[in-house]
Amino acid sequence: MALCIGVMGAENQPLLIKISPNIQDPIKFHFMLHSALDVVEEKSQPLPKTPGSISGADLRELYLGLLYPSSDEVRVYGYCANTRMKMILIVEASNTTLRDNEIRTMFRRLHVAYSNMIMNPFYDVGQPISSKSFHDFVDSMIAAFGVGKLVNPTLYSVEMEYFEDVPTLTGIRLLLRS
Amino acid sequence: MSAKGKAPLLDNNKVNADLIKLTYGALVAQILKDYEKPEDVNKQLEKLGYNIGVRLVEDFIAHHNIPRCLDFRQTAERVQQAFRFYLGFQPAVGNWAPTGNEFSLIWDNTNPIGDFVEFPDNLRTLQYSRVLCGAIRGGLEMVQIDVAITIAKEFLLGDQATELRIRFNKRLEDALPIGED
């Protein structure tokens, strides 16, 4: 099942983080999300300039694939749109039914839902997402990919905390490490 | 993006319906930033619609050779037609009052100008469709029909449809130019 879905804005600020309810220590997942952003950053660097191409043009795919080398418990996937909006997906490593293609489809559906959400004129781009339909969609996504242990599909979302002096996840990440 | 709003892209004279919806959405959001109170925004939207209506009706009559309406039912038909002409898809006309002086324009399961909109809870008094009311009122006023319009149902607020209730008030005899009749 999907254990955690995170959506981050262009400045790495968290827009939405949802963690499956049967997770004991959500903080660990926050940590994983934050460190996954490092890998996303690395993978989404513009390719070196080649003759004939537009300078610094991005030729990479939006889907970044597996970010972490598969650990015992979880696998972390990333997706980075051209607007630098990032989506991170954490799934159980034991779940063998989720292949690359399924993950890719999930990301695509998330991206479509996100783009529909962003069309709402009352949403300010870059702010934490409060849209109910998008929340419901992400909830359903986390629940839909859980045939295993998930008995009660009600979910809670973790409130995002902002440190006043370090508004972005990068800042929080550094704090965690120091 | 919604699949519904597909307009012929090759036709220079038409724009994509999604563009209209996004533009209108941005406009409402901006007015809201400027005026802050939803009630004030409603007033502005009504005014905006009114100004659209009084101009649009001229264009509508000129392009369609519309004869005079003989009763209010015909008027309803014309309004419906105008919506098809300018917004691309038409509402249903229904819920006639027995006296024949009140009817509803109904869009089932949609709001014609608000596909993507999701209301924050603190804005539930905002009437997103107010601009349509203003446009109808302005248009009809130019043809000497005074109407009062209320929003009976709003799809964006969780209703099954968007419904505008239009009530005939009176004929504006004063507005006739001197020397006619």
Give the fraction of residues assigned to helices of chain B. Answer: 40-55%
Structural shape of chain B = globular
Q: How many individual β-strands of chain A?
A: 6
Q: Termini distance of chain A? A: 32 Å
Radius of gyration of chain A (Å):
16 Å
How does the helix and strand content of chain A classify structurally?
A: alpha+beta
Main sheet characteristics of chain B: 4 strands, antiparallel
- Count of runs of 4 or more consecutive helical residues of chain B: 4
Give the C-alpha Rg of chain B.
Answer: 17 Å
How much of the polypeptide of chain A forms β-strand, as a percent range?
15-25%
Q: Write down the CATH topology of chain B.
A: Muramoyl-pentapeptide Carboxypeptidase, domain 2
Strand order of the largest sheet of chain A: 3-4-5-1-2-6
CATH superfamily of chain B: Trafficking protein particle complex subunit 3
Low-confidence stretches of chain B: 1-9
Largest interface: A-B, 12 and 14 residues
What's the CATH architecture of chain B?
A: 2-Layer Sandwich
Report the CATH C-level class of chain B. Alpha Beta
Strand order of the largest sheet of chain B: 1-2-4-3
Number of helices, counting only DSSP H or I runs of 4 residues or more of chain A? 4
Instruction: Give, in order, the helices and strands of chain B.
Output: HHHEEHEE
From the N-terminal CA to the C-terminal CA of chain B, the straight-line distance is 52 Å
